[in-house]
Design goal:
Elements lengths: L27 H13 L4 H16 L3 H18 L5 H16 L3 H19 L4 H16 L3 H19 L4 H20 L1
Length: 191
């Protein structure tokens, strides 16, 4: 779900604020995080989740650098508190990669997705939904990073697995088919 720019994270103060300088005071998610910090402490799993929510909403409101920085800090804390193999740590790493890509660094995001994918294969197996999602996100970032042939190839391989795991008419399978066709067309245009 994307939060509209006119939501509660709308810039306050003068109109010259850059997105990374927008204050979040008065934001319900920030207020919730403050309560979690006060009541539960900084290392409680619910506090970590509240931090992830705030970072997500910052990114959705256009504060891409802030969202990326907060997810970077959160990954470090999840690794410290929960460990590298915890599902929340894996999810947070995926969120960081997403916002790195959204912030215009698709090659770096692709490397982060590849690292995440290696761990998903090891921990969850090849057919787990999180593994399949990481593969799709990696393919997308490779395409965005100027590697349409690799993106199309990875989507083609991924489509085979989606067909096997979910079937030909599942909405996620259809999305993968569309993405594969998109990157094949981008590749054709580049030739």
């Amino acid at each position: 779900m994307r939060m509209p720019a006119t939501g509660s994270l709308r810039p306050q103060g003068n109109r010259d604020d850059t997105p990374d300088e927008r204050p979040v005071s008065g934001c319900p998610v920030q207020d919730l995080l403050n309560d979690h910090l006060r009541v539960l402490g900084p290392d409680h799993p619910d506090t970590l989740t509240a931090r992830a929510s705030l970072a997500y909403y910052l990114g959705a409101a256009g504060n891409l650098d802030q969202a990326t920085a907060q997810f970077r800090d959160l990954v470090a804390d999840c690794l410290r508190v929960l460990g590298p193999d915890h599902s929340s740590t894996l999810i947070t790493r995926g969120n960081l990669a997403r916002w790195v890509g959204e912030a215009g660094q698709p090659a770096q995001a692709a490397r982060q997705y590849q690292d995440l994918l290696d761990d998903c294969f090891r921990l969850l197996g090849p057919d787990h939904p999180s593994t399949l999602t990481a593969r799709g996100n990696l393919a997308s970032m490779l395409g965005e990073a100027g590697q349409p042939a690799q993106a199309a190839r990875q989507y083609r391989d991924l489509l085979d697995d989606f067909l096997r795991v979910l079937g030909p008419e599942h909405p996620h399978t259809l999305t993968i088919r569309y993405q594969m066709a998109y990157w094949q067309e981008e590749l054709r245009r580049a030739d």
